[in-house]
Amino acid sequence: MRNPSPIPSLRRVALVGTSVPRQCGIATFTDDLYQALSRTDHSLNMSVVAINDCTDAYVYPGYVAFEVQADDPGTYAVAADFLGVSDTEIICLQHEFGIFGGRAGEHVLSLIEGLTAPLVTTLHTVLEKPDHDQLKVMRALVENSARLVVMAEKGRQILQDTYGVPPDKIAVIPHGVPDRAFLDPALAKHALDLADRTLLMTFGLLGPGKGIETAIEALPALIRSHPKVLYMIVGATHPNLLRSEGEHYRQGLVSLAEKLGVRDHVRFIDRYFSLEELLDHLAACDIYLSPYPNEAQIVSGTLAYALALGKAVVSTPFWYAQEMLANGCGVIVPFAKPDALSAAIGRLIDDDKMRTGIRTRAYEQGRAMIWPHVARQYLALFDEVRSASRSNGAQIICFPVPEAIAPPAISTAHLASLTDDVGLIQHAKFGVAHRRHGYCLDDNARGLLVMAQLAMHRNLTPDEERLSGIYAAFVEDAFCPTTGRARNFMRFDRTWVEEGGEDDALGRALWALGNVAIMNDERGLGSWAATRLLETALLLPNCKAPRSWAYGLLGIAAFLKRFPGHRSFEAIRDDLAGRLLQRHRDAAGPQWTWFEDRLGYDNARLCEALIICGQDTHDGVMLEAGLDTLRWLMELQRAPDGHFRPVGTESFGIDRSFPRAFDQQPLEAWAAVSACLAAAKAAHDPQWLQEARRAFAWFFGENDLGLPLVDPARGACFDGLHPDRRNANQGAESTLAYLAALTALTRFAAEADRQEPDCGLPHHSDARSSGKILHRLAKS
Q1: At what angle are helices 620-636 and 567-587 packed, to 10 degrees?
Q2: Are 629 and 593 in contact (CB under 8 A)?
Q3: 628 near 667, Cβ under 8 Å?
Q4: Taking every annotated instance into account, which residue ranges of this chain make up the domain Glycosyltransferase subfamily 4-like N-terminal (predicted)?
Q5: Which among 32, 144, 60, 52 is positioned nearest to 100, based on CA atoms?
Q6: Are 665 and 646 in contact (CB under 8 A)?
Q7: Count of beta carbons in the 10 Å neighbourhood of residue 257
Q8: Contact assessment for residue 567 and residue 526, using Cβ atoms and an 8 Å cutoff
């Protein structure tokens, strides 16, 4: 009877790597990926954690949210902490050994091991024969990454053979490339004033290890038969090389060209091009050269760009080239063989048909690599990782309460931090009151209710006495003197937003008043509440919302404990309870034992109200209807492995739809605890104690994510569970839900241990042991 719950859309992604304007291939890739993801999903909230090199300070674009100093190990751990505080849902790390500090870039381990969100690592290098330090880093990356992305099948093979990575942990996503039209190079050469030249090109940051020497050595033989050839070498010297030895390497290439007599056929463009400039030059290229000197190159962004623009490529057989140039998409020549390179280039120049066929096939292959396609693959992978993280996250991480010690004490410290002299502030940013949204009657009434129920369990502390007085004053002020209605929302400047509030707000106020009315305190709060309830309860029958009836019924039931036989209140109770029962009769059907056509918030309150009213009036039909609906609801709120899974907010407003799992709210757990305890008293059935325990254990980690939602020392509760994380804020509603549920179970346990008559439980072993129930809440 449970529908699978679609996971809400991904919202927060962080990329970690070097970033523009730093001049390196990883920085370009990070920027391109950021732009592509942002354009593909406009609702995505994205940021970049940039890895700085040792000496340069960069003026980063606004999306760079944090900077890591490559050689400062401490900044990596701080970055991990920052990503956790930012509530990032997915972190995508761009890994290359040369950009992180420490031996083999080991400083990055301080970052990845401190992450709380799932990590997807894109490997720009995969070594088939790593040394000891490189192997250590790779093993940590494998262990801490939810997925590893490589850009070629060879990368997948090496990960499996060398590092033992399971196949399902590896994703192959191509290197992204720009989307450019398939053009005749003659058109682009005209714009560069090169119309009479046969243009060869290699681009990228200049440095050893790219085989440019071999390409220059191939030119003398080539020029003898093709005197119009010009070899253009585009790109600034790599910044690391520039710092260590200046332009020594470039000058060596110039000297080599001069020595071979081809200096007039080689043009160096010593500049870091913008993307558009680069693509304009690449479009003019007749033949692209990729003469790497050895095979251990798992990806090449420059080769990927050449394919994307439909260039005829001549390359040595390094790993990436072997894969990308298969099926006639390029020409492969042996490593470090100038004569073979010269002959291959000559054939392509002379054979227009061959060159055009290679260009066409290369361009077609490049279509699968354009950034929009790549971005969609990354987003699909991120969603898959989030889903797996949610479903596999059920290693239960519970609050450690040993059986031999007392359960958590009821702390109102966080509640006090959310309360000023006006009332309880609605929202919090993390654990800090967020004043901008002001106050509401809903939360102040709940706060008053919690204080009243806590006072029935133990003496309030002076601070708690003060809180109860503040909440009572807010409730009193909420009733509009002109309309008599209960106003709900108050701005932080103490002005009410409306003159007449919602039905549910009135119901909650009456619920709180009824519980306060049975107090006997020196300040006379009980008398105030009884008087206010007598003045306002007559408004309740005019309410249309079933939940407002339920809240009001709970308040009236409490009031009638002090004033049994109050005719008017008994009449209101009978009327509203009858309405709820009729709602159940009208809405219930096959597989739908409920009061309405849809599930909403605070569901179990409807059941609880019927159960209590049925018990108080000795109406067996009403009591059984309450128990039946609660039994049905609790079964819906049972995950396949048995833990409590409250009706998620995505279920709200959908007719006859079984629950969706997210987002999960503490309010539902509290309602379930209260209703199940009411059922345990009314039905004399200890099984309901177990249901109450199951619902309460949700707060302590027995939930879909295996994450505790409470800080018992402060009495704080997080604002719920998302599909892949808990909401980091700790607002009033959530905190009150936890405190109320804890108070209810603690009171129930104390009553059972005392075997008070009104506990309503038989004197069997399960009931007598109920005082130990909290001792076991942390046990899975």
Answers
A1: 50
A2: yes
A3: no
A4: 107-178
A5: 52
A6: yes
A7: 23
A8: no
Q: Are 446 and 415 a contacting pair, CB within 8 Å?
A: no
Residues 24-42: tens digit of each pLDDT: 899 999 999 999 999 999 9
DSSP 8-class letter at 8: P
- Residue 764 CA to residue 685 CA, distance in Å, equals 11
| Pair 693, 676: CB distance under 8 Å | no
Sign of CA dihedral 651, 653, 654, 655: positive
- 196 secondary structure, DSSP code: T
Q: Give pLDDT tens digits for 277-299.
A: 889 999 999 999 999 999 989 99
Tokens standing for residue 404: 């031999």
DSSP secondary structure code for residue 778 in this structure = T
Indicate if the pLDDT at residue 519 is higher than 90.
no
Q: Cα–Cα distance between 137 and 131 in angstroms, integer?
A: 10
Which residues are 676's β-sheet partners? none
Residues 390/724, Cβ–Cβ less than 8 Å? yes
* Longest Cα separation, the chain: 115
Copy the structure tokens of residue 319.
Answer: 């790993």
> Which amino acid, 743?
T
Q: What tokens appear for 365 in the block?
A: 């292959």
| Tokens representing residue 633 in the block | 């609801």
**Do residues 422 and 441 touch, judged by C-beta distance below 8 A?**
no
Pairing outcome for strands 710-711 and 716-717 = antiparallel
Q: Which two tokens stand for residue 474?
A: 């807010």
Contacts of residues 388-391 at CB distance under 8 Å and 24 or more positions apart, as own/partner, are 388/146, 389/118, 389/146, 389/724, 390/7, 390/704, 390/705, 390/723, 390/724, 391/704
Taking each helix axis as running N to C, give the angle between helix 732-754 and helix 666-683, from 0 to 180 degrees, rounded to the nearest 10.
Answer: 20
Judged against a pLDDT cut of 50, whether residue 575 lies above it is answered with yes
- Which residue segments constitute the domains of the chain, with CATH numbers given? 12-172 (3.40.50.2000), 185-367 (3.40.50.2000), 413-776 (1.50.10.10)
In which element (H, E) is residue 624 found?
helix 620-636
- Mark out the alpha helices in 218-370 (DSSP H runs): 219-225, 239-245, 248-259, 275-283, 301-308, 319-324, 338-350, 352-367
Q: How far is CA 25 from CA 30, 58, 667, in A?
A: 9, 16, 50
Distance CA 686, CA 677 (A): 9
Per-residue exposure over 602-641, b if at least 16 CB sit within 10 Å of its own CB, e if not: bbbbbbbbbbbbbbbeebeebbebbbbbbbbbbebbeeee
Q: Which residue has the tokens 């900044």?
A: 75
**Separation between Cα atoms, residue 719 and residue 148, nearest integer Å:** 32
What are the beta bridge partners of residue 432? 429
Q: Which residue has the tokens 């038989």?
A: 762
Measured CA to CA, the distance from residue 356 to residue 159 in angstroms comes to 36
* CA atoms of 439 and 490, how far apart (whole Å): 5
Q: Answer for the pair 692, 673: CB distance below 8 angstroms, yes or no.
A: yes
pLDDT confidence of 241, banded at 50, 70, 90? Answer: confident
What is the arithmetic mean of pLDDT over 675-698?
94
Closest listed residue to residue 777, CA positions, set 721, 707, 714, 698: 698
Q: What is the distance between the alpha carbons of residues 16 and 51, in angstroms, rounded to a whole number?
A: 7
